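Need residues for this backbone.
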């Protein structure tokens, strides 16, 4: 079945039932070392995973690691330009749960992202990136402990689908001409707009199916969180991109108020219900006035719409959500993308799960990781219904490659997510305790060491991993 791979002789497959993994005691887990700093991070992280599993289960459970290849290593093994061999794709499909280091993507020309390809090929539609503070971690932010969010990023569409044409290419030129002469003039709202002839062109598809399956997973996750963290914020730039980003918001609300009607309340619904609870005699019109700033300046038609919204909400959910019942539901709200970047800094404790489209989630997950200590502390997972690949938020950080200095924390924390996903909570907890204790004692790599007050002598990448293991039981 494999051209150049030999799976471990002992160990068995993780299988899936209704989207959930069924994990044997000796699962075979494929791993990709990664390019650049992958060479430093992976061995350090693997050592921590094995030590934690051994310490937690005393040999009763064990991961059978299966080395597979992508990026530079794959080209060495399989030949020039063989960046993502069939063997690798087949192994991930067969064994279901994999973990990887970062892979290089050139800017401008060259190959398209292997990381994105892995997500699309295996339909790993939810990129889950928790950003949580470990006590003692130095941060550029004054109160980093207030941020505890999970970026839930749609992972298979948006401009990441990679459908674009270079400026001057034959098809790009044809497309621009078709748009300029036919499709744009036929769309009254675009009037006299024209695309400059020397443009590159990219396509941004956002589907209802893709948006709703992401939001569905985000809401299900919110339902597992403690009551005060049961919130899902739909992040979008729907004021500008109305039919892609705006539609993502609308489809998110639609899902929340149909499939999860009993479990969810939207922010606007909560205002309507709260207004009525505060004043049971409040008229529909006054309620509408309170939820819509500038109500009196609106057209009669728009005012009627808002009154209708108030009436519909009160008729539909007063019995199930009124009299404060809504406070026990998952709160679903939305924020415009630019504003959420400042909100996570100015009001970090008001957010929990941030459901985003692909590009916004890419930006937002790096920014949120920076608040809690930087990319060295940013884990992630790409999750589908029958497969999952765990990987850090950051890339290959090439200038640090091979120096044994980079922070392996993000891949180690991605492994913690993997262990939790597998249901091996005891091993995951040991690693979290080890990381927390190492950091609070100032045993950290250069990235955290340089921010500490007073600065501390940095540990190497491999030494940090060793320190985590030493602190498992602190
Ligand atoms: N999923 C993936 O595999 C991803 C791959 N990439 C690819 O990685 C390559 C390099 O991208 P680049 O833009 O440099 O972004 P990177 O995320 O690789 O690195 C940018 C900077 O972030 C900091 N950083 C990154 N990783 C760590 C870590 N483990 N510990 C501490 N600090 C860290 C470093 O900052 P400093 O030097 O200031 O300490 C580093 O110089 C590109 O080819 C890109 O396409 C990018 C993102 C994700
Ligand atoms: O694949 C890449 O090179 C970059 C992807 C990325 O930045 C991300 O997924 O966060
Ligand atoms: Mg990124």
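Answer:
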């Amino acid at each position: 079945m494999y051209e150049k791979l030999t799976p471990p002789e002992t160990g068995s497959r993780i299988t899936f039932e209704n989207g959930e993994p069924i994990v044997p005691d000796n699962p075979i887990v494929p791993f990709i070392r990664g390019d650049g700093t992958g060479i430093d991070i992976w061995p350090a992280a693997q050592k921590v995973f094995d030590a934690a599993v051994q310490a937690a289960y005393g040999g009763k459970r064990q991961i059978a690691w299966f080395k597979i290849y992508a990026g530079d290593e794959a080209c060495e093994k399989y030949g020039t330009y063989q960046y993502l061999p069939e063997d690798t794709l087949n192994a991930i499909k067969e064994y279901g749960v994999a973990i990887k280091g970062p892979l290089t993507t050139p800017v401008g020309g060259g190959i398209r992202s292997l990381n994105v390809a892995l997500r699309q090929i295996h339909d790993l539609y939810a990129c889950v990136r928790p950003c949580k503070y470990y006590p003692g971690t130095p941060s550029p932010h004054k109160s980093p402990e207030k941020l505890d969010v999970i970026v839930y990023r749609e992972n298979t569409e948006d401009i990441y689908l990679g459908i674009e044409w270079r400026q001057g290419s034959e098809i790009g030129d044809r497309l621009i001409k078709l748009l300029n002469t036919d499709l744009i003039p036929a769309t009254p709202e675009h009037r006299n707009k024209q695309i400059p002839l020397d443009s590159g062109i990219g396509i941004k598809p956002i589907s209802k199916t893709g948006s709703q399956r992401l939001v569905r997973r985000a809401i299900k996750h919110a339902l597992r969180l403690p009551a005060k963290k049961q919130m899902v914020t739909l992040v979008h730039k729907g004021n500008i991109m109305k039919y892609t980003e705006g539609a993502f918001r609308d489809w998110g609300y639609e899902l929340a108020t149909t499939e999860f009607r009993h479990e969810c309340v939207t922010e606007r619904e909560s205002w309507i219900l709260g207004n009525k609870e505060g004043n049971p005699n409040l008229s529909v019109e006054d309620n509408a006035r309170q939820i819509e700033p500038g109500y009196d300046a609106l057209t009669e038609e728009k005012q009627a719409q808002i009154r209708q919204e108030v009436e519909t909400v009160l008729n539909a959910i007063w019995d199930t959500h009124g009299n404060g019942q809504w406070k026990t539901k998952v709160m679903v709200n939305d924020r415009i993308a630019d504003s959420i970047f400042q909100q996570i800094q100015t009001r970090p404790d008001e957010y929990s799960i941030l459901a985003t489209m692909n590009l916004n989630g890419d930006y937002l997950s790096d920014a949120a990781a920076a608040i809690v200590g930087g990319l060295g502390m940013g884990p992630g997972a790409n999750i589908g219904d029958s497969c999952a690949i765990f990987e850090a938020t950051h890339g290959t950080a090439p200038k640090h490659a091979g120096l044994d200095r980079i922070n392996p924390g993000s891949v180690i924390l991605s492994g913690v997510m993997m262990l939790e996903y597998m249901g091996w909570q005891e091993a995951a907890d040991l690693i979290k305790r080890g990381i927390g204790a190492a950091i609070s004692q100032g045993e950290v790599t250069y990235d955290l060491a340089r921010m500490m007050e007073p600065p501390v002598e940095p540990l190497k990448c491999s030494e940090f991993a060793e320190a985590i293991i030493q602190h498992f039981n602190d």
